[in-house]
Specification:
heterodimer; A: 370 residues; alpha/beta; Rossmann fold; 4-stranded antiparallel beta sheet; elongated; B: 12 helices; 0% strand
């Protein structure tokens, strides 16, 4: 067995890695490092260069330029492959072979002694919930089972580093959750994981650090927390009152940058309610139907309808999303506003910027720069 | 370096096992392997009234040749389409290791299938005067034909039908120019000259010797020619596959 320890603490060391297909630069001189034992996320929109990067690191395709080392070995060398496991995005197990035979074949390719391979295969299949079906051909497996088998195949050689290319894509919620749970278990063993995914919550939940690639270039590399902060200091406050309130009244609250009323949701709900009441269209809606207690509170500066930018009358709403950089101040003001107007707050949720916001901002900015 | 080569050769056994399980142990493939020599025997022995002792060396040659070159040309495009080639490439094996495993599997099956025409020959009273020479020829010839079949799968296509067509276009003409059913000495000079470009010619010449009919060329020339063909096929196949494999995955 090849010893992959390098002593510099790096599992992956990439310097100016480039891949060109003719004139197209799929990966454009990216550089990053992944520490041993780290769960590293590699995010990016479709066609950004994620899979191309992972394929270069795993030796499936050759690089056009730059340097990449995996556990100190040149990426794609026999030595680096020996200490790596790969879970590709699309299933590539032998469909005619059983799960057991797929695992034994892989073990033989990695020269794992037979008795050791059998023991590992049995443990993995039990852990992944496939042991009962170990003698069924893989073609009889569901997509979720195949993904689990791919994970078992990647882990049969007990690799030091595991490359995961969209391991939960195309799976239902339960299967995806199961796979994530398994990955969490496996990371306890000190392995390094390199994960590409579209799923921001998955990356935020699993990864120690995240790199974002867009159009072949790295646009960010940090912890999910720091990337959220990078996305901006703006938090979102979702609030719902027991009756309609004008946008203008909320905009006047100190610290509120922007107000979005949940117009679309309200309209859809009204349409639904109208249909249930016998086909009355929104235009025919009476004033008493706008919200509980509204009829008796016309004097609060809360109009029934206000003009939109297009000049149409926009019905008032009771649900809003407020954008603010000063969450504490705005919440205090909202409490005061509610008391002053005899309003009751039904919902008050504070949403800090998500990794998805950071992703959209960073990939969007890169797009604009292009 | 030596250890690395040995290590890779050991890993190629996994490829052999995989090929046998996925391709060669399938019912239709086994049936075809058995039926092909039987059908050829019936066609030539009863259909054209050929003397059995003249027919058998060529029949053994054709059986081994077609069996060894049947699967390898379709395995690469098939595995490209199924994405399993990507799995092999991401494993710690070199491209030549994959080719070596595919070659060994084809040769192994060719050797096993050669038993069918030999049994037919024995059943019809053909005696093998030099069984050891024949055994050596079958082993060396199977490796040669299997290596040749690697060349037929070089084109980076993802559909087996393309390589199958190319394979048929090359294999059948080779069969007809190799003096399979007509001894080399009976061939016109021009046809005989052309026959020397086919490794099957040398194999059939040895098989003819093994059935007591005498060979056209000295045995060592036949064996050296087959080994030389094998070497050239192997070097070219590895070189070309190294170039085209990245285009597949």
């Amino acid at each position: 067995m090849v010893n992959g320890s390098t002593g510099n603490g790096l599992a992956i060391d990439v310097r100016g890695l480039t891949k060109k297909y003719g004139q197209l630069v799929a990966v454009d001189g990216i550089s990053f490092e992944v520490n041993k034992g780290e769960f590293f996320g590699f995010l990016g929109p479709n066609g950004a260069g994620k899979t191309t990067t992972i394929r270069m690191l795993t030796g499936i395709i050759s690089k056009s330029g730059g340097e990449a080392r995996v556990m100190g070995y040149p990426a794609g060398s026999i030595d680096s492959k020996q200490i790596s496991g790969v879970v590709p995005e699309q299933s590539n197990v032998y469909m005619d072979l059983t799960a057991w035979r797929n695992l034994m074949l892989t073990a033989e390719l990695y020269r794992i002694p037979s008795s050791e391979a059998k023991m590992r295969a049995e443990n993995l299949l039990k852990q992944l919930g496939l042991y009962e079906r170990k003698d069924s051909p893989s073609k009889e497996y569901s997509m979720g089972m195949r993904k689990r088998l791919l994970l078992a195949v990647a882990l049969i050689s007990d690799p030091q580093i595991v490359f995961l290319d969209e391991p939960t894509s195309g799976l239902d919620v339960q299967s995806a959750r199961f796979i994530r749970g398994l990955l969490r278990d496996f990371r306890q063993g000190g392995k390094t994981f390199f994960l590409t995914t579209h799923n921001m919550s998955e990356a935020a939940e699993m990864c120690n650090r995240v790199a974002i690639i867009n159009r072949g270039k790295l646009v960010a590399l940090d912890t999910p927390e720091n990337l959220r902060i990078t996305a901006g200091k703006v938090s979102l406050i979702d609030i719902s009152f027991d009756m309609s309130v004008s946008d203008e009244a909320l905009k006047a609250i100190p610290g509120v940058i922007r107000v979005e009323s949940s117009q679309a949701i309200d309209t859809a709900e009204r349409m639904k309610a109208t249909a249930a009441m016998g086909g009355m269209g929104p235009g025919k809606m009476g004033p008493g139907m706008r919200g509980p207690g509204m009829a008796g509170r016309q004097g609060m500066g809360m109009p029934q309808a206000e003009p939109t930018e297009a000049g149409e009358k926009k019905p008032p709403s009771n649900r809003f999303r407020l954008h603010t950089e000063d969450t504490g101040e705005v919440i205090t003001s909202l409490v005061d506003f509610s008391r002053a107007n005899s309003l009751k707050m039904n919902i008050l949720n504070v949403n800090p910027p998500s990794l998805e916001d950071a992703f959209v901002m960073l990939t969007g900015e890169a797009k604009r720069e292009k | 370096m030596k250890n690395r080569v040995l290590d890779q050769m050991i890993r190629s056994i996994a490829i052999v096992k995989k090929d046998v399980m996925i391709y060669y142990s399938k019912g239709p493939v086994v049936l075809m392997g058995v039926l092909w020599p039987a059908i050829m025997f019936i066609s030539f022995a009863f259909g054209r009234g050929m003397a059995i002792e003249n027919l058998m060396p060529g029949l053994i040659g054709v059986s081994v040749f077609f069996t060894c070159s049947a699967i390898a040309p379709v395995a690469f495009p098939w595995e490209t389409a199924q994405r399993t080639l990507e799995r092999l490439v991401s494993a710690p094996v070199a491209i030549w290791t994959i080719l070596f495993g595919d070659m060994l599997a084809s040769a192994l099956v060719g050797i096993i299938i050669s038993i069918v025409p030999i049994l037919i020959a024995i059943g019809f009273g053909v005696t093998f005067t030099s069984p050891l020479v024949l055994a050596c020829a079958i082993i060396v010839g199977s490796i040669c034909f299997a290596t040749m079949s690697l060349l037929l799968s070089v084109a980076p296509v993802s559909g087996p039908q393309y390589t199958q067509m190319l394979s048929t276009l090359i294999k059948f003409p080779l069969m007809f120019i190799s003096g399979v059913f007509i001894p080399l000495s009976n061939l016109p000079a021009a046809a005989r000259a052309i026959s020397f470009i086919s490794p099957l010619t040398y194999f059939t010449d040895i098989a003819r010797y093994a059935t007591g009919h005498g060979s056209y060329m000295p045995l060592y020339v036949d064996f050296l020619a087959i080994i030389a063909f094998t070497f050239v096929f192997w070097v070219v196949a590895v070189k070309l596959h190294n170039r085209t494999l990245p285009l597949r995955v």
